[in-house]
Amino acid sequence: MEFETVIGLEIHAQLKTATKIFCGCSTKFGAPPNSNTCPICLGMPGVLPVLNKKVVEFAIKFGLATNAKINRFSQFARKNYFYPDLPKGYQTSQFDLPIIGRGEIEIEVDGQTRPIGITRAHMEEDAGKLIHDEVEPVSHVDLNRTGTPLLEIVSEPDIRSPAEAAAYLKKIHAILRYLDICDGNMQEGSFRCDANISLRPVGQDELGTRTELKNMNSFRNVQSALEFEVRRQRDILLDGGTIVQETLLWNPDKNCSESMRGKEDAHDYRYFPCPDLVPVEISEEWIDEVRHLLPELPDQRKARFIDQYDLPEYDAVLLTADREVAEYFEQTVKGGAQAKKASNWIMTELMRELKGDAISSCRVSPSQLAALLTMVEKNTISGKIAKTVFTDMMASGDDPATIVQEKNLAQVSDVGELLALVKEIVAANPAQAEDYRAGKSKLMGFFVGQLMQKTKGQANPQLANELFSKELGG
After folding, report:
1. What is the percentage of the chain residues whose pLDDT exceeds 70?
2. Taking the model in full, what pTM does it have?
């Protein structure tokens, strides 16, 4: 029997506001435990929340960026459940009247583009964090994160493979970062994803029993967890078993999912309108104001890079996946570098040197990279030497001209100097010279290599080839 995979993702994006959603406490990450708290976010009796207007603006931005319906009237609700990191005994969220309705984005997998629907996006507050002691069998509660504003983005069950899920997640991540409403840091928990997944026989309309996957803190883990769950569910169904509706935790160390608890349905949370908050009403004028604040989005920038800089689509996709990388590329080109060469360098040398770190940690400025590439273009240094210079630039932050001068790395282009060395090398290798003249043209690499050794890699390779061709051709 063949099965179809059905996946829906729930993304929790922490919004980049300075203060929490219903109080004035800081949202800064890394503060001492329980220091960014107050009676409101701790849920003390008699306190009243006040909605942070910036949270609403950010939600509108996301809705506009995903061609979604902006609901002019939305309402907060109480989501009731008990957990140690939830001091009020309920989470203030939105249920039947969310701020953002149906939207849509496009993803591309294996050269195929198709739309993925967004069911809704709603505002809510985050819970706290449990810290489990590694020595004693106790857990500590840090409520700093309690009340941090979240935008929960719920997809339609339109995703048909783990690869599509990863592509959808990356696209939403990029949109949020371009809008500058979420920093997207999965390690710090400011961009989190839960996945609902089920299998059904091909051709069947009814959805299968779903499981929910949690604890996936990277794009790779999301795809790996979903691939594992597809195999697990498929094996159960082929053996005649039934899928249990449950919540699973992904264990990246064991590369498998582990049962956490039974999966709840909406009625288990006993949602009801929050009596402490008035409904949110949004005017058309406010929506228009926010629309004018929208930046160039990933798909728009990709199309422009292809048109303006004549880049291949592959380059444009990679460069625009991250807003900071795209801006770094453009600043490098503005600094005088050729677009394609800047693209190649950023996608290879720069990314290799960063080793997965954000480009904001790069010590080489776009203008410095442009200067380095210009030196290669003008034959001041060779491409090989440029890689060595770039490594030094990443370590020191110095300008390329300074490094080249201090280490005497300038390319040797003096015809007289190189010709003397060429004659010396040909004379010292008569057998290879005869073989070259007899038609073994690949030996040119041998001769140029000898010259590079003598000049410590600083000989102008184009000039070297020309000089050897004349000397050996005689």
Report:
1. 98
2. 0.85
